[in-house]
Write a structure and sequence with these properties.
Chain lengths: ~300, ~240
């Protein structure tokens, strides 16, 4: 006998049908931005982890009469290693072998190349003692004085530029996200205000029968939650193929920066919060709009 | 013991916007458990007076007290509780077309937070009593004028209000239905509800002996039982409160 439906005739609200579309777009763009930010930060953190606590010294091969003097180069390598091993704070220093060099170059040059044909410097991988202070200025001076073909790469400059790039992208993402959130909030406020104007006689009747503002606000919040949920689910489903496609492309890239841009379980967890937050935001905005408008009525 | 007044008006005036006052210097008081007809020509201000009584608007000047409380001083959050003590039958019914007869009548109970089983019992009983047992799930657009009026009346009385205000409640009814409805109002009045019925139906006023509040030119006069504004020589006998 009792078929409970909303006391307000929401089915007549044509403006309300914008809401799921708007929330869908919000979740889609916010989700993409979140996914991008999470991937970039994951990449940055993996790189930071892998290169903090290490240094690289490169030694340019010594040329005489247009040919590489292997003996002098090897001697210089040994001098560099000696300096490094005597420096406080350094745990180990070892020259990369030809096969290790080839492995590093393989993602870029493929299998078929001869290392001897390339003007490649020799590399020394230096591991630091955790939390130890290394006097890098002193080390640079020593290397420059004793081994003029050697140079020290502390990665910090490169990493600093990368961090700056990622932080800039983070900021742009946050700015765009704020814009999307603000636009959606404005649409929710507009849709709710229009509905309140259309249903003013019904609201007056509800007030007259003794309804609190909260009773009416709750009905608007429930209706908004349903509409926003539809949009949020569709928007979230729209992101999934894009992330899977990009993950697949990134997975195919062996080595380099992109391969570190992984989307792990924690990232999926955070991403799944986007539609939930979109629904909560829309619902609270609608509730607040109704409360504020009803306060102006008798 | 001092008499308890449900309604107290003191020098009340009401105007819409910048227009002339539709109610002027209205002062009267209705004791709890009383029954009054409210009469007056069309445009005399009956609906405006009722709207002040059911708190749809505030007076432009003067003071209105309901159940002993000045409506100007009541915090907004306390208004719903006050309104729940007032049942209103609107001239234009104000039914919600998208809800069934049952849900329309259940509205005051739902907003007051009654349990659903009690709502079902009370609403079904009342709709049976007003002759709408066969139309419980009918939507208002499918009901006749008289049936709509019955739903509106059921909604007004379902909450057993302490003050019942009805604007032309028998307007769409035949004499038999009108008499039946009046018996419902009288029964509520016997149980302590103060009743004010705005009507043009002189037959109804003659049949049921209750005093009348008469509005003319924005001013109010109360006539005891048996006195009428048409009886010019009796006007001086009327009680100006």
């Amino acid at each position: 006998m009792f078929k409970r439906s909303s006391d307000l005739p929401f089915a007549n609200d044509t403006a309300a049908w914008f809401l799921p579309w708007m929330v869908m777009l919000m979740v889609f763009f916010a989700g993409l931005m979140t996914a991008g930010t999470l991937s970039l930060n994951s990449m940055l953190s993996r790189w930071s982890r892998s290169i903090s606590g290490s240094l690289t010294v490169q030694v340019i091969p010594i040329e005489e009469d247009g040919r590489i003097n292997k003996k002098k180069t090897q001697q210089e390598m040994q001098d560099v290693l000696d300096i490094l091993r005597k420096t406080a704070g350094i745990a180990s220093a070892r020259a990369l072998t030809d096969s290790q060099m080839k492995n590093l170059l393989k993602p870029w040059l493929g299998e078929s190349f001869l290392l001897e044909d390339l003007p490649m410097p020799y590399l020394i991988d230096v591991q630091l003692i955790p939390d130890a202070e290394v006097d890098l200025d002193m080390l640079k001076t020593l290397l420059a004085r004793n081994t003029p073909n050697a140079s020290l790469d502390v990665h910090k400059l490169w990493l600093g530029k990368l961090i700056k790039l990622v932080r800039t992208l983070d900021f742009l993402g946050s700015a765009l996200l704020s814009l999307v959130i603000a636009t959606t909030s404005v649409v929710v406020i507009y849709v709710t205000s229009s509905s309140l104007a259309v249903h003013k006689p019904v609201i007056e009747l509800l007030h007259q029968t003794g309804a609190h503002d909260g009773y009416i606000s709750k009905q608007y919040a429930q209706r908004t939650a349903v509409l926003a949920s539809v949009g949020a689910v569709v928007g979230f489903l729209g992101i999934l193929p894009i992330i899977f496609m990009l993950s697949s492309v990134v997975g195919e890239v062996q080595g380099g920066l992109l391969s570190e841009a992984r989307f792990d379980a924690a990232s999926w967890g955070l991403l799944s919060l986007v539609p939930v937050l979109a629904v909560i935001l829309s619902t609270l905005t609608a509730y607040w709009t109704v409360q504020k408008t009803l306060r102006r009525m008798l | 013991m001092a008499e308890t007044y449900v309604i107290e008006f003191d020098a009340v005036g009401l105007r819409y916007g910048q227009g002339a006052e539709v109610l002027r210097d209205i002062s009267f008081a209705l004791p709890a458990g009383s029954f009054y007809f409210l009469t007056g020509e069309s445009g005399a201000g009956k609906t405006s007076l009722l709207s002040l009584l059911y708190l749809a608007r505030s007076p432009t000047r003067g003071s209105v007290k309901l159940f002993g409380k000045g409506v100007h001083n009541i915090p907004r959050d306390d208004l719903p509780e006050l309104r729940r003590r007032i049942g209103v039958v609107f001239q234009d019914f104000r039914l919600l077309d998208h809800l069934s007869a049952v849900d329309n009548v259940a509205l005051p109970l739902r907003v007051a937070g009654y349990p659903e089983d009690e709502i079902q019992k009370r609403v079904a009983e009342l709709l049976m009593w007003v002759g709408l047992g066969a139309h419980l799930n009918a939507k208002p657009p499918t009901l006749s004028g008289g049936q709509k009026q019955s739903v509106a009346i059921a909604r007004a009385v379902i909450n057993r209000p302490q003050l019942l205000l009805a604007d032309e409640p028998t307007g769409n009814m035949d004499d038999k239905s009108a008499a039946r409805l009046m018996r419902l109002f009288i029964e509520l009045n016997k149980r302590g509800t103060t009743v004010v019925i705005a009507t043009h139906n002189e037959g109804l006023i003659r049949t049921f002996p209750y005093p009348r509040i008469h509005l003319a030119n924005g001013q109010l006069t109360i006539y005891p039982v048996g006195y009428s504004p048409d009886q010019a020589y009796l006007k001086t006998e009327a009680l100006r409160v």
